[in-house]
Q: What sequence folds into this?
C-alpha cells in the first residue's frame, strides 16, 4: 500500500513528481558507460563531440577524443592514440583490424637473375630496388620492393609463390627461403631442380614461413639455382605477409 503525499497544509498531492532537471557536465573519464536496452543521444562526451547519431545497446566510450558518427552506431570501435580506428566489431560480431600490418604484391618478369649461383635479390638494398608489377595491398607502407620492415615486435607469416623459367638440365641444385634481418631461413632445397621440374624448362613452387621479428627487422624472399652457366628467369612472384600476433 502506498501513502498519498501531503503538502505542508495537509492537502493531498496525487500528481506524480516531475523528473529532476540537471544542467552541467559529468566527468566519465575511465568509466564504462553501459546502455543496455535504451537509446541515448549525447551532445558531448568530456569535450569530445558526437554527431547526429545515437548509441544503442552496450558501448564503451573513449572520452579522450572526438566521436564522429553521422548515423546509428552499429559497431564498437577501439581508438588508438591518433583517433584512428584500430579495431572494429560490427553488428554481426565480426572483428577487423584496419591497421594490422599486412601486404600482398606481385613481381613480374625478372630476366637472367640466377642459374649461375647468383642469389636473388641478394640483400635488403637490392630487394628494396625490385619494382612490383602490382602492389595489391600494403596496410601501413611497410613494403618497399620486396623488402618488408616490421613496424612492431611479433610473430609474422610470409608466403611466396613463383614460376622459374628458362631452366635446362645443368641446373642441378637450388634453394629458396626468406631472409629475416640478414639471416637466411631456407624453406626448400633440391639436389636436382631440373628433374624436380619434371624435365621441363620451368618450375612452379610455393613456400611459406612463420618467424618472430622485432620492430625494424626486415624480411624478403630469396632464391638461387646453382650448377649451371645459363641464367634463368622469374616469370612471376607472388609475395604476401602479415602480423599473426
A:
Amino acid at each position: 500500500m502506498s501513502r498519498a503525499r501531503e503538502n505542508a497544509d495537509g492537502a493531498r498531492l496525487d500528481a506524480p513528481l516531475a523528473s529532476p532537471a540537471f544542467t552541467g557536465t559529468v566527468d566519465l573519464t575511465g568509466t564504462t558507460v553501459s546502455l543496455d536496452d535504451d537509446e541515448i543521444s549525447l551532445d558531448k562526451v568530456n569535450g569530445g563531440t558526437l554527431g547526429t547519431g545515437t548509441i544503442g545497446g552496450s558501448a564503451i566510450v573513449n572520452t579522450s577524443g572526438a566521436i564522429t558518427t553521422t548515423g546509428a552506431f552499429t559497431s564498437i570501435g577501439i581508438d588508438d592514440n591518433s583517433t584512428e580506428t584500430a579495431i572494429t566489431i560490427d553488428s554481426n560480431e565480426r572483428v577487423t583490424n584496419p591497421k594490422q600490418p599486412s601486404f600482398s604484391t606481385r613481381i613480374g618478369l625478372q630476366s637472367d637473375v640466377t642459374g649461375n649461383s647468383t642469389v636473388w635479390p641478394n640483400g635488403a638494398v637490392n630487394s628494396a630496388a625490385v619494382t612490383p608489377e602490382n602492389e595489391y595491398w600494403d596496410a601501413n607502407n611497410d613494403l618497399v620492393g620486396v623488402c618488408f620492415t616490421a613496424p612492431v615486435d611479433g610473430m609474422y607469416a610470409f608466403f611466396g609463390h613463383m614460376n622459374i623459367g628458362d631452366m635446362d638440365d645443368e641446373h642441378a641444385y637450388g634453394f629458396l627461403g626468406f631472409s629475416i634481418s640478414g639471416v637466411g631461413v631456407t624453406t626448400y632445397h633440391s639436389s636436382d631442380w631440373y628433374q624436380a621440374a619434371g624435365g621441363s624448362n620451368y618450375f612452379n613452387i610455393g613456400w611459406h614461413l612463420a618467424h618472430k621479428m622485432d620492430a625494424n627487422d626486415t624480411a624478403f624472399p630469396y632464391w638461387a639455382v646453382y650448377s649451371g652457366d645459363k641464367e634463368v628467369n622469374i616469370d612471376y612472384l607472388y609475395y604476401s605477409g602479415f602480423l599473426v600476433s
User: Anything to note?
Assistant: Confidence is low (pLDDT under 50) at residues 37-70. The longest helix spans residues 124-129.
